[in-house]
Every structure is written in C-alpha cells, then in structure tokens.
Amino acid sequence: MLGKGETPGHQNPPQHKDDDDDDAPHGVVKLISAEGFEFVVDKKAAMVSNTLRNMLTSPGGFSETREGEVRFPEISTPILEKICQYFYWSLHYSSGKETSEFQIEPEITLELMMAANYLDT
Amino acid sequence: MSGGGPPRKRNFKIELFKHRVELDPKYSERTWKVLEHAIHEIYNHNASGLSFEELYRTAYNMVLHKYGEKLYDGLESTMTWRLKELSKSIEAAQGGLFLEELNSKWMDHNKALQMIRDILMYMDRTYVPQSRRIPVHELGLNLWRDHIIHSPMIHSRLLDTLLDLIHRERMGEMINRGLMRSITKMLMDLGATVYQDDFEKPFLEVSASFYSVESQEFIECCDCGNYLKKSERRLNEEMERVSHYLDAGTEAKITSVVEKEMIANHRHRLVHMENSGLVNMLVDDKYDDLARMYNLFRRVSDGLSTIRDVMTSYLRETGKQLVTDPERLKDPVEFVQCLLNEKDKHDKIINVAFGNDKTFQNALNSSFEYFINLNNRSPEFISLYVDDKLRKGLKGATEEDVEVILDKVMMLFRYLQEKDVFEKYYKQHLAKRLLSGKTVSDDAERSMIVKLKTECGYQFTSKLEGMFTDMKTSQDTMLDFYAKKSEELGDGPTLDVHILTTGSWPTQPCPPCNLPTEILTICDKFRSYYLGTHNGRRLTWQTNMGTADIKATFGKGQKHELNVSTYQMCVLMLFNSTDGLTYKDIEQDTAIPASDLRRCLQSLACVKGKNVLRKEPMSKDISEDDTFYFNDKFTSKLVKVKIGTVVAQKESEPEKQETRQRVEEDRKPQIEAAIVRIMKSRRVLDHNSIVAEVTKQLQARFMPNPVVIKKRIESLIEREFLERDKADRKLYRYLA
C-alpha cells in the first residue's frame, strides 16, 4: 500500500468556518489523501460512499463528524481525486440525466477498486 | 497476474488480491486491542476522541486479513461483558427508578450498538454473510435480551413492575406513559415473540382475572344500564391504553378479554336483570342504554342473538296479552291503535338504538305476525280501524297524514294470515260507508284500494273497485232519471237509488218489505225507467240497506227531520194513519224480518232522547205482545234527529260465526282452483305435495287447512277432475 505512514497534515490550516452545519446532508466535508492533499466536496457527494455516509451520520461524535474532515492514510492523492470525480459523476448519473461514461485509466484500476471496496461505493 | 507474455487477452486470470504487508504474529491481538478499547470507550460515552476512519480501517484490515472470526467473537464477548455490567446497575436501581434505569441503559446500549455497527460495517457486509453469523445489530439485541431482559433478577421484576403500573392506572392513578411506551417499544424491538411471551401473555391473563373480579363486583351492585356504562368505559380505556403505550396488535386481544369477561360471561344475567334488564329498557324507551347494549353485545359472539331472543319473547308475550285482553277487544279502533303504537315504539327503538339492524327488524315483524294471528278477530278489527279513520278520523288531516295512517294499516295487514277474512270485512264496511255516504275522502278510499291492489293483486280488489264504479254510475243514472222524468213525478218524495251489481257487493238476498204507497209509486216509475234504458236486467230492492229522511210534526207543533233506515221509515209511515199499533200489526203490514223489526222498533221506542214511538208496557226489550203509539211528547234540541243509523260495529257472536262460515265457503272454490291448476301442470302428484303446493299458492291470502284441502280433493275426485292411482293409492292423477 502506498503511503503507509501517517502523513501529518502538512498544509491544512484548521481555519474552516463550516461549523454551522455538520450533520446536515448539505454543507461540505474535507477529504485528505495519504500525501496530505485536501479535497473539499459536498457532503451530498461524499455520501455516495456508504462508509462515508455512516461516518458522517453515526451518532456519538466521532472526531470526523466534529471536525468535518476525514483522513485516508491508505489512499493516494490521484486515487482520491478520481474517487471525488466519481462521487459527482454518480450523483449526476443517478439523477437520471444523460451522462457520459466514467473514464478509468487502466493503470489505476486495481487501486481504485480496492478503495471502492473500502469505501463501499 | 497474467499467465503469458504479450498475448494478454488469452489466459487472463485474476487472482485474489494478496495483501503485501508482512503480518506480525501479534498483529491480530494488537489490532483487536485497539477496537476493544474503542468499544469500551463508546460504552463509556467517550467516543469523541476516536477517529471513525481509523477504527473502520482497523476492522477492515482485520477482516481482510482473515481475522473476521476473532473480531466477531471479541465483539460478542466484550459486549456480553458490558451488558453484564449494565445489568448489575439496573438490578441495583431502587423501586420506581428501576424502569427509568432500564430505559436509560437501553438508550445507551442502542446508541453504542449503532456506533459499533457503523465502525464494524465492513465485517457486517462481508464476514457475517459469508460465515452465516448474526448481523451486529441483531447480535446486540439478542445479547440485551439474554443478559438483561431474561436475567433472573430483572425478568420477573420488569413484568411485575409493568403489570403493577397498568393496574395502578386502571385504579385511577397517573403513571408515566412515556416511560411505559419506551419499555414496550424496547420489547417490540427485541422481537415480537419477546413482547408477546414476556409481556403480552401475562398482561392478558392478569387483565382477565382483573376484569373477572371487577365485573362480578359491578354486577352485584349495579343495574344493567350502569353496568354497561362501566363496561363501555373500561373498553375505551383499554383501547386508549393500547394507543398510548402498547403495540397496536394488542388491541384486538385485550378488547376481546374485556368483552369476554365483562359482557359475554354475564350476558344472560345482564339481559334478564330484574328492573333494569332489556325488557325494562324496551318498556321505558331507554335509547342510550339500548344502543350501548347493542354496541357492546355486538362485539361478542351470540351477543346480539341473546338480545334478539329476549326481545322476541318479550314482544310475543306482551303482544299476546294485548290481543287476548278482553278489555281491549271491546274497542276495535283502540285495539288497532294499540298495535300501531307498539309497532311505532319498537320501530323507533330499532332505528335509534339498534342501528336499523335487519335481523332485529325481522324479529319484530315475525313477532307481530305471530301474535296478531293469535286473535282471529284481528282482520275484522283492522278493517274496522280503517272504517273509523275513513268515516271521521281523517277529517281535516292532510293527504300525507292519510297516507301515513294507511301505510301503517297496510303494514299490519301484511302480518295477517287470513287476508281473505279482512277482504270480506273490508267489503262490508266499505259497502256501508258508500251506501250511507259516510266516507270522508274519496281519494283516501281509492288510495287504500291501490295499496291493497299492489299488495295482493288485481283479483283481490276488483270487486272493491266495482263498488266504486256502481256508485258513480248510480249517480249519473239518478241525474238522468230526474232530468227526464221530473215533470211526471211532481211533488212526491225524492228517490235516490244505488244500483249495485250482484256479486260485487256483500249483499244477501233479502225479501223486500212492504214499502209505503208513496214510495212504491216512485219506485215503480224508476223501475220502468231503468229497465227501459237497460234491457234484460233485473232489479231487486234491498230494503234492508237503505236510509230515509222524513219530516215529522209532534204534539206542540215541533218539527223535526228524522234520519232513519228504510225499515224504520216503513214503520213510522204506518203511524200517519193510526196512533197505536201492536207488534203483530206492524209485522204484518211491513213484512220486515223479525230480527230486523225488533232492532228497528227498539231503536225507535227504547232509546232515550230518540223515542219517537211510545211502547206499552214500558220495558227495555221488545216482545210480541207490545203495543206502540206515536210519541206526541217527543222533544229534542236538534232539528235533525238521527235514529239508529247503520253504523259498522263489531260483529256479534252469531254474525261472526256467519261471516266465518261465508269465508270458509269462499275458500272452497279457491282451494279447488289451486288444486286443479297444480294438477294440470304436474299431472301426477302425491297427497302431501299437493297440500304443500296449495298452501304455498294460497298463503298470500290465507292459510288453508290441510283437512279442508283433503275434502276438496275428495270432492274433485267425485266430480272426476282427479282420480286415485290404481297402483299407489297415495298418488292422484289429473283427468283432462
């Protein structure tokens, strides 16, 4: 697995002001890759993943729900980027609109599938 | 990964993805410790420091590394341990706090369980279905059930507490319904069987004994109305209880317990309760109580039939008393009015209290049918009632009122079995009404005929209609007679003839009496006029049915107009030439039949205030040796004096016998006709079938007596309409 070690979030200033709504399906959530890159996505999109859905809706204040950010120490930046693209593609697709095929480069197929299994997407 | 070199498209094979991380032998132990710690923290309400992602990833990896079983077993034992801890604290809770504690711990457990399930979701998704284990959530509920609810220290205490609270609520205390609701919902969440076995069943048993005792108490000290009120309230309470804090499925069960204990077990006693039971309610028109009884009894099997049976026997009993009470029989109008009132009363009860239940209506109808026919004078009385109404009772009534009354009479008519007897009387009464011109409304008369026609068919009323036609024709004839002959008639008495078609009218051949010469002259003129216009007819005078208006001058020059019957007129005319006559003289001169003459003389000489004749010796009765004188001293305040007019009265005993006999006589041809109709289509039939068929055909009019049917069959055999079968004597054959 890439990036096994816990990357200390090197350039994330905890200066969000998103505390106004942390449990509602609207609002955003920050996804952080193994290398520390941050992707800010709509919660609605993130919830395409069942794992993320549970994470964001589970009762009893886990740190992710409180802080509105999730770290993925085992997912590399390109994969997480692809995943975020997929979230939006999937939202678009399931809304019933005409959607072009989701392109997956062969090189990342395997890793992407592992991540998909992990995220239950 | 790939089998060959360049031709990758062939022999392509995917292997299971192998994790590349070297597993250190203590890996599983170490990772499990992380999760175990997390589970404890969750139960300690300390989850805020935990990272969902990390825990999820840890569990994910454990499952991925084939440690799913360890993870699962670890979870089970950790949770069990936590639950045992919880059960201790619940057990320690004192008295009233017990339920609160149980509920709050249940809330905690539920929340923790959800969190645990979320972080172990990957296991739930992959490992659990593969190895066919119980999903985490269900596992958590099962453990709660086994270690908390079924723990010996909690199990019975929980049940007792719940039942005690419900009992206290039944006794009027306020209890915490919200808490009750949470607890019963918990039992439902643990599975319907837990709710049923651990709560519902004992609850129903306790309720049954509670209501058994309570109903016993109530029934000893309450009257029926109050008892029913209490039962109704209890029933509503139970339903309300279910809606507030029990499972909806319990409603049917608990209501059936209440119904059984409070209603079904006591239904006979309730219905028959002295001074307040069903009969008293009916007598006193207690609509509310009756409606309550109906609605409660409807819930239990046999409930309504219990009410219905008691009502029926009550109706039959009172009806029987009514129709056989000799006091009642004295006044036919009153008698029928009583029946109608009784019917109205119970119609209203059924309408208001019993929701217009068809079965009750039928019971009411059959009861009336039963007792009306107990008295064989009912047909006569009903006809007399109509007679009374059409003579005077309907004066001033609107058309609708008339219709209502006639409809009610028709309803009683429908109950009659001997409709032909009614017809006979109705015809007599109608004839008297028409001939004496006493009918109030022609429309009402016709409306009644139409009703009888729709009820019984054309045949029933054709003669009645004939009577109306005769009246109309007679009127026209008389107008014509006077128009053509007025000059040759001069100043003599005025004649008004009703020409009655023989057969349509209930007349008996009766020898005409000797009319006074003045009358005889004009009668002969009319006869020649009538026979002149209508060839081949015969006219006979029915002097027994006519009336006359005569002017008389008494001693002090007082003039009175006397309204008398034809017979009386004949008698009085004799006194124009003489002052005193013996009975024998009168009989000889007038040739009035003896019985009619007696009545006629009695009404002229023995009725106070109307005694235009004086009798010697004075007595109440007429004897053959009496002598009659013109009563000079007669006075009256009225100018018009009505003397012994022909009013329809209840028949005397011999008359009744006579009518009866005529009815029987009339039935014979009808029975014969029915037999012939049946045999004509069936050709061969045995005796019993004929009797059954004839009864069926004729019961709309009357109930034929089997003995009479047998006699008619014999008569038909004599007249060679039928013959007995030669082989089988029970069979009859139709001879064409």
UniProtKB/TrEMBL annotation, chain A:
A Gene Ontology cellular-component term: nucleus
Family annotation (InterPro entries): ELC1, SKP1-like, SKP1/BTB/POZ_sf, Skp1_comp_POZ
Pfam families in UniProt: Skp1_POZ
Region called Disordered, residue ranges: 1-26
Pathway per the UniProt entry: Protein modification; protein ubiquitination
SUPFAM superfamilies in the record: POZ domain (SSF54695)
Keywords on record: Nucleus
GO biological process: jasmonic acid mediated signaling pathway; ubiquitin-dependent protein catabolic process
Location(s), subcellular: Nucleus
Origin superkingdom: Eukaryota
Residues covered by the SKP1 component POZ domain: 28-88
PANTHER family cross-referenced by the UniProt entry: ELONGIN-C
Family listed: Belongs to the SKP1 family.
Designated name of the protein: Elongin-C
UniProtKB/TrEMBL annotation, chain B:
Keywords: Isopeptide bond, Ubl conjugation, Ubl conjugation pathway
Single annotated GO MF: ubiquitin protein ligase binding
Domain named Cullin family profile: residues: 377-605
UniProt-listed SMART domains: CULLIN, Cullin_Nedd8
BP term (GO), one: ubiquitin-dependent protein catabolic process
Family to which the UniProt record says this protein belongs: Belongs to the cullin family.
Protein name (Swiss-Prot/TrEMBL): Cullin family profile domain-containing protein
Organism: Oryza meyeriana var. granulata
